[in-house]
User: Fold this.
Amino acid sequence: MLRSGDGMNASLHMFWRLHLQSTLLMRKLMIAAEPITDIDTTAADMLEDLDERLNAQGISLVLAEMKDLVRQKITRYELNRTIDPAHFYPTIEDAVTAYTSLDPGPGTTTS
Assistant:
């Protein structure tokens, strides 16, 4: 999960630094988007590129706590072509609950 008070560009830059340094297997990347108050065309292009690269690696981008005005811009920029609309959650807790209920992880059994 990424959380950055510096906006979308800083969050995306921070992710790529972490991703390039990481050898962890990742299936989902959640961005806690509550601090993001606006998204311009540059950030939209970066977000689309990020989602396409993640999708190519089998990783889903998940956005939690995104403000309605920012989500409307994402729709206006037609980013829902790559970002699954089902991957937007009102809270971090909702995103985590959805992920853990659908994908308990290897070696985990459910009753």
Remarks:
- The mean pLDDT is 80.
- Residues 2-91 form a domain with the Transcription Regulator spoIIAA fold (CATH 3.30.750.24).
- Residues 13 and 43 are 11 Å apart (CA to CA).
